[in-house]
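A favour, since you know our structure tokens better than I do. It will help me judge whether the discrete encoding reads sensibly. The space below this message is yours for that.
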Amino acid sequence: MSHKVAQKLEKFLQQIEQRSHFHAGYPYNLSCDYSEIVKFFNFMLNNAGDPYVEPDFGLHSRQFEQEVLSFFAQLYKIPENKFWGYVTAGGTEGNLYGIFLAREIYPNGILYSSQDSHYSISKAAKLFRIKHQVVDSQINGEISYHHLEQVISQNRNYPVIINLNIGTTVKGAIDNLDKVLEILDRHQIKNYYIHCDAALSGLILPFLDGAPQVNFQKPIDSIAISAKFIGSPLPCGVVLTKKKWVERVETMIEYIGSKDTTILGSRNGHTPLILWYALQSRGYNCLAKEAKTCIWNAQYLFHQLQLREYPCMLNNFSNTVVLQKPSQRLIKKWQLASFENWAHIVVMQNIDKDKIDTFIDELVLEQGLFNQVKNLQLQSVS
């Protein structure tokens, strides 16, 4: 390697290390160590095709992918013989897959999703040419059940495809599955498909006492979960659905010796290995502890903001704290996601109380300086 190349890589490493330390606005677990499996990155691993069909080539990690999927199937209470899923490239692919299956089952169905749904839902509607009805959101980011019932009643002759948010992207709001089921029952809707976008909260809610129960013991049809909470150097996630739905769309591809049941053809074989290692090395109890700690720290941040009368919001069972938009300097330093007059901090494993205190101190100092300048300006005007 040339000196110039080495210098550039070293500079980039320093930049990433620094930016990782002050990363608070996006839902990434940056507290992971995968050094034990780095050696596998010297090999090409391709999980092309169905994760349950052994292909003709041997450079894949299907055995690890199947164990990962079994973990999620148990977590979401669906029997091994009734579920199907695969490791995706992230939450978006999981959402695309769920909406794709819904379209195949109900070609003339109408897709309903709230204003606070992830942008991949409207993308799915465009890609698969599904009629899409955007439903109003409540102020906390939860879907408006009144508006949902209104638009469903107006289109009761069409099958219903619903995207439910299990933790919205911006506010961490959870749509109430039971209320939605009541609406469908009230209007005698028999043909419906419920997809759950549980990108971040999908690995938090199952571990929290008293949290809403969203699993396959209720009539949901698919769920997309991101690996962001587990943590991975490569974006990835998991999608789960009912095996009977997948059997409707599968086709055999002779070229690879497998079934074409996924959105992508070639699929990353390293991500199932990463997820498997994370689950094996940390286990259920460790993940549960991490989930509870993130929720406690989010509540701590929320309380600290409240004590200082700084405008903020936190949904129940959420690790996403919404706060009044601070200065651009703080937004850039802490890499906060901002929207209109608001920003948010997603309290992941790497956001501990010390880091929260540091942010609060900087925010308070900045607000103090802002108020001083404002008072001086008022005095000069008077």
Remarks:
- DSSP finds ten helices and 13 strands in the chain.
- Residues 325 and 341 are 5 Å apart (CA to CA).
- The domain at 3-31+288-381 is CATH 3.90.1150.10 (Aspartate Aminotransferase, domain 1).
- The mean pLDDT is 92.
